[in-house]
Specification:
Blueprint (H helix, E strand, L loop, with lengths): L17 E4 L2 E10 L6 E6 L4 E6 L3 E5 L2 E4 L3 H6 L2 E2 L8 H15 L8
Parallel strand pairs: 1-6
Antiparallel strand pairs: 1-2, 2-3, 3-4, 4-7, 5-6
Length: 113
């Protein structure tokens, strides 16, 4: 769960950036963690303003106020949600977020995310 090397470029924060999924605009980054091995985004979606935890390793490109991810909008909507964007995502919550990611991505778990 780490940003891919070089994907952040000169950006030290992506908070407030638009999130573009593989099938179009998906929401905004409300919070981000940059801790090595534990990096993630909290993406706020839709009218109901649900906050979903998106692993940083899904980010493919950052630029012009946008964060592009490999997931589709429905896949992001299936990811673990938190009550508040800056709520701690650790321990059991982090494990739940990762399990939701693997289900949404529909790929075998290989670790090293």
């Amino acid at each position: 769960m780490t940003f891919r090397p070089g994907v952040l470029g000169a950006h030290d924060s992506v908070k407030g950036f638009r999130v573009v999924a593989s099938d179009g605009r998906a929401g905004r980054v409300s919070w981000a963690s940059y801790a090595p091995g534990e990096s993630y985004l909290v993406v706020t979606l839709g009218v109901r303003r649900k906050h979903h935890v998106v692993p940083a390793s899904t980010v493919t490109c950052v630029g012009d106020g946008e964060v592009q991810v490999v997931l589709s909008r429905p896949q992001i909507g299936q990811l673990h949600d938190v009550a508040h964007p800056d709520a701690p995502v650790e321990g059991r919550t982090l494990a739940q977020a990762m399990a939701a990611f693997w289900r949404a991505a529909d790929v075998p778990q290989t670790g090293g995310m």
